[in-house]
UniProtKB/TrEMBL annotation:
This protein's name: DUF721 domain-containing protein
Pfam families noted in UniProt: DciA
Listed InterPro entries: DciA-like
Domain of life from the UniProt record: Bacteria
């Protein structure tokens, strides 16, 4: 049933669905954070309609709950959002205009780290 639920939602929301439980009169959907639960609630009418079309089952109620993993349990890949391209350049330019050696060195290291994060994220997107 979880696969059907995921197919009934837009992809950017489906990836946050962790599990579901079917009761005679309701569907309980577990998601990986409260923020995504809120977003999925907007799609409840469409979700229930698509589930009815594909399975014939139309629950009276849809409950969306936050899934709480056990300590140390990792149930999904964290989504890393790389910083915009201009941030590394902005940090580098700020470092070059800084007068203090310690601040300048720190900004240059931060610029390099941000650039490396961006390159790593772009490499993963190209796979």
């Amino acid at each position: 049933m979880l696969d059907l639920v995921k197919r009934a939602l837009p992809g950017f929301l489906a990836v946050h669905c962790v599990d579901c439980v079917i009761k005679p009169d309701r569907l309980i959907l577990y998601v990986d954070s409260a923020a995504w639960a809120s977003q999925i609630r907007f799609y409840a009418p469409q979700l229930l309609s698509k589930l009815e079309q594909s399975t014939g089952f139309r629950p009276k109620d849809l409950q969306i709950r936050n899934f709480v993993a056990s300590i140390g349990e990792n149930f999904g890949r964290p989504r890393i959002v790389p910083p915009p391209v201009f941030i590394a350049e902005l940090l580098k330019n700020s470092a070059l205009s800084a007068s203090s050696g310690e601040i300048k060195d720190s900004l240059l290291r931060l610029s390099a780290t941000v650039g490396a994060l961006r390159d790593t994220a772009q490499g993963k997107e190209n796979r």
